[in-house]
DNA sequence: ACCGATTATATCGGCGCGATACATCAGGCT
DNA sequence: AGCCTGATGTATCGCGCCGATATAATCGGT
């Protein structure tokens, strides 16, 4: 998950850890924030795997002359994506496996949807819908045989959750319909799909 | 989290791991399922801490004569809560710390709300509300400064999330109001609070 | 001149997960 | 009798992510 997020962002520009985390926050819109305790180990993991490389930063002062010229900039490790990294990114983007429908994972995937091929988008959306529908059915059946041992509060929480899954299914249906429409009638797109 | 769930269930009756997991599923109504990879280590943790003890099962056949009498029952470890465990449970129930407002943790707490003292209930509910409100504000501000770098899909996900947080806040408000009302006008309760 | 906030990197223990490995037992089918 | 499937039951392993914590330089304000 972090793998996709990091690779996805580094594909756009090389950055250092701290900055990467901030951009991740912007990109996911606070929908999800990763801790440094996840980020730095992940960075090392990806480096070991050869998917990214780190340059010890030596940006000269005049590169970014923000008001005062005095600068020396302490150690910053700037990460850059490699060719293998780009391959891996393509794989991850196109992947629509079961773990992809998790709340968190789905959110991350959505954030890079504009770079995701159309059929992968469909598979991810449909997979997510299936997962949410399953949860919905689980909640429904829990509610129907409720009253027995289940706490009143829990029952109400289930009702809230049920509403929320129903809404998400409707939302996904709209997305999927739109996606299908655009697939056979491509819009005046901003990101030119080759085709 | 598992600590609370396990202690909470064992307080009602001693059971073995497998059964415990099933009951947990019923209790939380599929809202959340714990894996064995979590459960058994947790059981060992609690045992080491002296909060529970394990009896190697030797229930005689006639204790549970379900249709056929033939029985020998292979190794089952039955866990029982100790006095310290009960103390710890009381602590956990009354706790309303920050980690309590997490989705998962909140759900588990709710499942044992009938055993939770009234003021702790209020603190948990209000804390949860605060957390959801914060998330809501985060999403709102993300949406208001959207259009910039954020993907169209992510923006729509934010909108969905925003709706959902708004609904939950309303839901919590109702719960809190009701709670407050019952606090000064106790209902004809089913679970006789000593008082 | 000092002080707090921000920038920046890093590690640690802990928790929960998915995968996997074992066994035993019940029931049904052939 | 033999077999197979599915439920019962316990357990472990590595992995990913988190929260807490440490350290330190630099920046902005007073």
UniProtKB/TrEMBL annotation, chains A, B:
Residues 59-72 have a biased composition (Low complexity). Residues 122-182 form a coiled coil. InterPro entries: Metal_resp_DNA-bind_regulator (IPR052509), Tscrpt_reg_PadR_N (IPR005149), WH-like_DNA-bd_sf (IPR036388), WH_DNA-bd_sf (IPR036390). Transmembrane segments: none annotated. Residues 6-91 form the Transcription regulator PadR N-terminal domain. Residues 54-73 are annotated as: Disordered. It holds the Pfam family PadR. Keywords: Coiled coil. This is PadR family transcriptional regulator. It comes from Pseudonocardia bannensis.
């Amino acid at each position: 998950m972090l793998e996709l997020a990091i690779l996805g962002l580094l594909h756009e520009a090389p950055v250092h850890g701290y900055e990467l985390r901030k951009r991740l926050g912007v990109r996911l819109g606070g929908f999800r924030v990763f801790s440094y305790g996840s980020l730095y180990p992940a960075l090392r993991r990806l480096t070991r795997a050869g998917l990214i490389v780190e340059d010890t930063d030596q940006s000269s002062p005049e590169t970014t002359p923000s008001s005062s010229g005095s600068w020396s900039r302490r150690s910053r490790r700037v990460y850059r994506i490699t060719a293998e990294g780009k391959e891996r990114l393509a794989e991850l983007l196109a992947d629509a496996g079961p773990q992809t429908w998790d709340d968190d994972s789905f959110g991350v995937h959505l954030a890079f949807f504009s770079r995701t091929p159309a059929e992968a988008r469909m598979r991810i959306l449909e997979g997510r819908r299936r997962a949410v529908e399953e949860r919905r059915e689980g909640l429904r059946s829990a509610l129907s045989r409720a009253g027995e041992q289940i706490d009143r509060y829990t029952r109400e929480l289930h009702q809230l959750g049920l509403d929320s899954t129903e809404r998400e299914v409707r939302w996904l249906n709209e997305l999927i319909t739109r996606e299908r429409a655009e697939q056979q009638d491509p819009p005046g797109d901003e990101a030119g799909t080759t085709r």
